[in-house]
Amino acid sequence: MQNTHVVIIGGGYGGVRALEHLSKNSRIKITLIDKNSYHYMQPEVYDFIANKVDMSHIMIDLPSLCNSFASVTFLCDEVKAIESTSSTLTTSTQTINFDYLIIATGSRTYFPDFIPGLREHSHGVKNVPAALDFKQQFERALLNRIETQTQGCEIEPFNIVIGGAGLSGVEIAAEMAAYANRFYQNGNFGCRGVDVYLIDAYPTILFGMDPFLIESAYERLIKLGVYVWHNNRISQVDEKEIRLDNGKILHFEFMIFTGGVTASTLTQYLGFETNVKGHLIVDEHLNIPTHQNIYAIGDITQALDTNGKFIPPTAQLAERGGEHVARNIIASLNGKEKYPFHFKNQGVMIALGGEYGAGILPGGIKVKGYLAYLIKKAIFWMYTAPLRRRSTIGKRR
Length: 397
Hints:
globular; alpha/beta; FAD/NAD(P)-binding domain; 4-stranded parallel sheet; 6-stranded mixed sheet
């Protein structure tokens, strides 16, 4: 009897979780396709750009991981088209048949076209090259800054601007401020001149989240010396200068934009229904409507809760989606009904610079400070440790 072939496009949180669950079924063979040879753990990127960890901390080798499973093949390639009627997809090098398809290619930074210069003059951190470029340029600029101290401390401010005060923006702002404070303290440099600005259009940071998280994060940001500007919309970005709709002008050395995400570019070529930001429309089973053997999960989808409200894209949402579609595929193979997807948030933890955090655990338990930091690190370890063990096994084969 021929094995069922499941193809997964995307080696992020959702794709890897689906792979783990599907690989337990001996009747299924899996092909994982990703244009990168590594699993990128973007929620931990703030540690990398703040020099707390090296690049290996935020990456897991996909060939080694896939090689640790007897039924999984990894293909480092880029998908160009999907033909749903014949259940085939085309990559840069070949055509592949599938019985089931899971699209999990994630998202990219959303640079609104109505803000001139934003894309050209700001950094994103949604991929490793972008994060590495920012880290290297920032450290070079710090060195240049120190060298100018021969002229005294009467030098221009060194401003880092973070556009967008959601989870990513708050975490990066806190970590960059903590890093700058630590840098000047450790080196005893006389001219302290790095300032971090967090700019957002909403009336509060972490808009829409629990008041405890908002208050805890705001208090920590202020303590770290971050300038938090609420109700400020970016109207234009020039080289080294940002303009706001209220007339304010702020000079900057670096700008990171975290004001939103849009689906990966793959959705533009599939012919499936999308929303205005390119997210794929899925049904209650996470299927592409009218294509019952094609699923989409994670940031690439328009995920809605039971009230029809958009669920913010997180690694947790992608993981639960991966587990769910694996369960539905196995149910279909066994001739059983598929299950509708219901997302229940298992809590949220926020890194707030240095060894400090805040979060809400399952059951509504609220924590902040060093304990929250330890819990967040423990959660990350519990996710990565099994994957790294499997990668070690796959590397030896």
